[in-house]
TrEMBL record:
It comes from Typhlops jamaicensis. This is Caspase recruitment domain family member 4. Residues 185-295 form the NACHT LRR and PYD domain. The gene is CARD4. It comes from the Eukaryota. Keywords: Leucine-rich repeat, Repeat. Signal peptide: none annotated. Coiled coil: none annotated.
């Protein structure tokens, strides 16, 4: 298997190939295969249509399966009457996926109810989460996505590697003696980068907003700060389809999701509530100033009926 958006080694394919993944029609067909219940199927389709970032990630077949398994879990965890009121976000999916990985030592999965609450699971693994998040953040700052074994094992143990967040990259860069590692998916590294920005109390305003600034380097319009295009309208940014700053976009999305009031109950067992509120206030202030600047830059209509 291969991840979409990656360049295949020229030793395997002579031509430069861009893997497209699921199209809109492929996604609809897969939904019909996965969800037999028509009501549940309609609900999932509505969620995907309402959340372009979630649906764009479904273009990757593996992540599509993970997201659908999460939907299946939410469907079983809530009553049918409650589920339509539940908004499933990209952050929800990754928080649940992280919880499942952390519970691997207890041999639990989405199909079995876990005796521990989500808060207890995260609290008991606080040091591991911080170490993984620290590694992800370090890599994101340096645009580094492959890590040497020494970098990985600085704060993580061999046992932590079995959680499944990282996978070995054999013989990377000609290194046969020791393994290199990468996150299971680049989006997962973005998630843990955002997690670090929330967890680390030393992170100030400048560092917290760093990746918003990265998104504005090539395009300073408001739309460049967050949105990922809906699947059927997706076009890679820039001339080279293999180079984009989508990982920064996802980091910003996860940061907003983690700092939302809905995540406050979970995160306050990892970081003081005052710190969460302070960082949320910083992000709100950034959006306010960005929106104000954007509105000032709009062309004003010259109509006699309106006074400006």
């Amino acid at each position: 298997t291969a991840r979409t958006g990656t360049e295949i080694d020229k030793n395997i394919v002579r031509k430069k190939v861009h893997l497209r993944g699921f199209s809109s029609s492929n996604l609809e067909d897969y939904i019909k295969m996965f969800f037999k219940d028509e009501g549940c199927r309609t609900l999932v389709l509505n969620h995907l249509e309402a959340n372009p970032n979630l649906s764009s990630l479904c273009s990757v077949p593996l992540f599509c399966w993970i997201i659908f398994k999460c939907f299946e879990h939410f469907h079983s965890a809530f009553d049918c009457q409650e589920l339509p009121e539940l908004t499933v976000t990209l952050t929800d999916i990754f928080l649940l996926m992280t919880e499942v990985h952390l519970n691997r030592v207890q041999k639990t999965n989405l199909l079995k109810k876990n005796s521990r609450s989500q808060e207890e699971t995260y609290k008991s693994n606080k040091e591991k989460l911080f170490a993984i998040s620290k590694l992800a953040h370090m890599g994101m700052q340096k645009s580094l996505f492959i890590f040497d074994q020494d970098e990985v094992l600085t704060d993580l143990s061999e046992q932590d590697l079995h959680l499944g967040f990282l996978r070995a990259v054999p013989n990377y860069g000609g290194c046969i003696d020791q393994s290199s590692y990468e996150f299971l998916h680049l989006t997962l590294q973005s998630f843990f980068t955002a997690f670090f920005l929330v967890m680390d109390e030393k992170v100030g305003a400048k560092e917290l907003l760093q990746f918003f600034a990265e998104c504005s380097v090539q395009d300073t319009t408001l739309s460049s700060c967050l949105p990922i295009a809906w699947l059927k309208n997706y076009h890679p940014t820039g001339g080279d389809p293999f180079r984009n700053n989508e990982h920064f976009h996802f980091t910003n999305l996860f940061l907003c999701g983690l700092l939302s009031k809905e995540r406050q109950k979970l995160l306050r067992c990892l970081v003081p509530l005052t710190t969460i509120k302070k960082k949320r206030k910083i992000v709100f202030a950034y959006f306010f100033e960005t929106m104000k600047s954007h509105l000032k830059g709009l062309t004003r209509a010259r109509l006699k009926e309106y006074k400006q």
